[in-house]
């Protein structure tokens, strides 16, 4: 594999390694609820990054960018990328999501085993530390309990052009704040009646520094800590602590967190002053999130698509979830190539969906064996071929990889061919079947079209031909007759009639929901077509997730969920760039 192109984050990492920014760090051991105590051992990892999803949904293609970036840095610079579940929000998190997220990260080819440890962490394991750190902020005069209503707090926060107003509770003595905060923890106050706020600057031009809330009261059962807590830390307070406890060096997030960086640094500096954390501290860096045309990359919208029944579930092959992409037949190699190709920058932009499709084509072209499939079948009868007889033809499994060998494809008197491969009256430049024309049956004989039959509606139902016995592919006579057309076929007596799903884009607009449209109104009503196709017999043995190129059509995968042994169902992953080669 080619090394990914450099980018500004790689430059920062290389500079930090060269300057030894993190060389003095000690390995923190297993960060648990209590301990941030360094072990006295030097940290074996040169850098530590993390991938910190909230387990409140399935991962999507945007997350793949973040995964490839964070795990890719660890892979390339002798570091570790922590798999961390950011589960500080008790209400929306579920085990199902935890499992699917782990599965997707591993499927993409990454893992969290390094230096003899499994670096799988849960932010909720640090609730005790986060609480102690909050008490420290109170006693050091850096936090206070505010009893204003949510509405008052919103108004007093001010605006971009107008400074905020100090809360009447801002100068409450530390002992009172501490007592109240403990009462909050002990369940003495109703939800929403008070919050703990950092005491920074209500006149700061950065609104995020106008005394942000760091703890709120919320009576909710947490999937990990149960009912132990009725107060929970806010994300912007919890996240820097999680990073610091785990010894993260480069905390990489998307651009919308840029304005939070001063608060990230503030929290860590205050706790370092108090001896609760040690220098060198983690640093946050922002990159632009992935925006991809023809899809939506937002958990909220994906949840709506699933719950609203617009798709069959989280792993619907049309969804841009990683679970859906996997069922669609997209490859981990394709995603890694895509991440390298789009790069990492701070410029917001839209990436064309075709770039992702090209990456899938490129990787599948390498890996997928070739097979023959007739998607829109009509009969071809070779009238001069003996009835009841058949013979073997030989088709290479991969044209660029002779080592993958050939398979036998049976030929007999009646074949299935594509409806498009016959024209009663050929248009200009049409080299396939029409009356009196000769073409090659790929891997078989040259045939000459002798006639056709139509039904009452004028649709062609059967095409007739004769074959030229000396022209079989792979025999000395194969080149005796030159033909311009080369068509694929499947023996009707041997074919496997299979369910094949042809997917199109889920949205018909490049930017779903742009302007004043609702993105749901941009759904493509024809994103799924189910057909019965005639496949070469070898495809009957396909195992779930086996990928193939169906010659001339595109890449297909045996569906992971709906295939049964001896009766696989196929999903079209992506069409070939040039669908009709001659
Ligand atoms: P969404 O915006 O879809 O709800 P999220 O940001 O809330 O996603 P998290 O679970 O918090 O989802 O994300 C985990 C990580 O993935 C974060 O570090 C986040 O920055 C990153 N990430 C999420 N969406 C994208 C995207 N479109 N492009 C790049 N990285 C992303
Ligand atoms: Mg989030
Ligand atoms: Mg989000």
From TrEMBL:
Q: Which gene encodes it?
A: glnS
The top of its lineage is: Bacteria, Pseudomonadati, Pseudomonadota, Betaproteobacteria, Nitrosomonadales
What catalytic reaction does the record list? tRNA(Gln) + L-glutamine + ATP = L-glutaminyl-tRNA(Gln) + AMP + diphosphate
Please tell me one Gene Ontology term that the record gives under cellular component.
Answer: cytosol
Q: Does the keyword Protein biosynthesis apply?
A: yes
- E.C. designation(s): 6.1.1.18
| Molecular functions (GO terms) | ATP binding; glutamine-tRNA ligase activity
* Domain tRNA synthetases class I (E and Q) anti-codon binding residue range list: 487-559
What's this protein's name? Glutamine--tRNA ligase
Which family, according to UniProt?
Belongs to the class-I aminoacyl-tRNA synthetase family.
For the motif 'KMSKS' region, give the residue ranges. 296-300
Q: What quaternary structure, including any partners, is listed in this protein's UniProt entry? A: Monomer.
């Amino acid at each position: 594999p080619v090394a990914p192109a450099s980018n500004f984050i790689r430059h920062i990492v290389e500079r930090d390694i060269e300057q030894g920014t993190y060389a003095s760090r000690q390995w923190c051991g297993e960060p648990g609820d209590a301990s941030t105590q360094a072990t006295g051992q030097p940290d074996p990892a040169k850098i530590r990054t993390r991938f910190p999803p909230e387990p409140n949904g399935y991962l999507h293609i945007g997350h793949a960018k973040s995964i490839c970036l964070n795990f890719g840095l660890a892979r390339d610079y002798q570091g570790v990328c922590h798999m961390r579940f950011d589960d500080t929000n008790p209400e929306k998190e579920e085990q199902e999501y935890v499992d699917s997220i782990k599965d997707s990260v591993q499927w993409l080819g990454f893992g969290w085993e390094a230096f003899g440890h499994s670096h799988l962490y849960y932010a909720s394991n640090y609730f005790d530390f986060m609480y102690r750190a909050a008490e420290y902020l109170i006693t050091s005069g850096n936090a206070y309990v505010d009893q204003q209503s949510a509405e008052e707090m919103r108004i007093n926060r001010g605006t971009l052009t107008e400074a905020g107003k100090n809360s009447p509770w801002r100068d409450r003595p530390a002992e009172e704040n501490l007592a109240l905060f403990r009462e909050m923890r002990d369940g003495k106050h109703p939800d929403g009646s008070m919050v703990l706020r950092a005491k920074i600057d209500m006149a700061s031009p950065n609104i995020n520094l106008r005394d942000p809330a760091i703890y709120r009261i919320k009576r909710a059962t947490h999937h990990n800590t149960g009912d132990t807590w009725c107060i929970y830390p806010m994300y912007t307070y919890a996240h820097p602590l999680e990073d610091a406890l785990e010894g993260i060096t480069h905390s990489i997030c998307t651009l919308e967190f840029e304005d939070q960086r001063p608060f990230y640094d503030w929290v860590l500096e205050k706790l370092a002053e108090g001896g609760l954390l040690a220098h060198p501290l983690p640093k946050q860096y922002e990159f632009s999130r992935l925006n991809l045309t023809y899809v939506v990359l937002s958990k909220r919208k994906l949840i709506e698509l699933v719950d609203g029944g617009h798709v069959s579930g989280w792993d619907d092959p049309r969804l841009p979830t990683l679970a859906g992409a996997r069922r669609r037949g997209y490859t981990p190699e394709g995603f890694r190539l895509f991440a390298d190709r789009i790069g990492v920058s701070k410029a917001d932009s839209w990436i064309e969906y075709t770039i992702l499709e090209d990456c899938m084509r490129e990787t599948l072209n390498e890996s997928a064996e070739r097979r023959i499939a007739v998607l829109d079948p009509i009969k071809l009868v070779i009238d001069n071929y003996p009835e009841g007889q058949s013979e073997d033809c030989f088709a290479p499994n991969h044209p660029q990889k002779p080592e993958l060998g050939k398979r036998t494809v049976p030929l007999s008197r009646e074949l299935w061919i594509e409806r498009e491969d016959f024209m009663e009256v050929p248009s200009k430049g049409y080299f396939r079947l029409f009356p009196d024309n000769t073409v090659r049956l790929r891997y078989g004989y040259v045939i000459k079209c002798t006639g056709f039959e139509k039904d009452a509606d004028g649709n062609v139902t059967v095409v007739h031909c004769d074959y030229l016995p000396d022209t079989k592919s792979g025999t000395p006579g194969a080149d005796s007759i030159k033909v311009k057309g080369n068509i694929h076929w499947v023996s009707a007596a041997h074919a496997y009639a299979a369910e094949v799903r042809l997917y199109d884009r889920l949205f018909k607009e490049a930017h779903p929901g742009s302007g004043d449209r609702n993105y749901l109104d941009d759904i493509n009503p024809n994103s799924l077509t189910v057909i019965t196709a005639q496949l070469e017999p070898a495809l009957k043995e396909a195992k779930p997730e086996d990928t193939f190129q169906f010659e001339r059509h595109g890449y297909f995968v045996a569906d992971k969920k709906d295939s049964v042994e001896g009766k696989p169902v196929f999903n079209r992953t992506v069409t070939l760039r040039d669908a009709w080669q001659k």
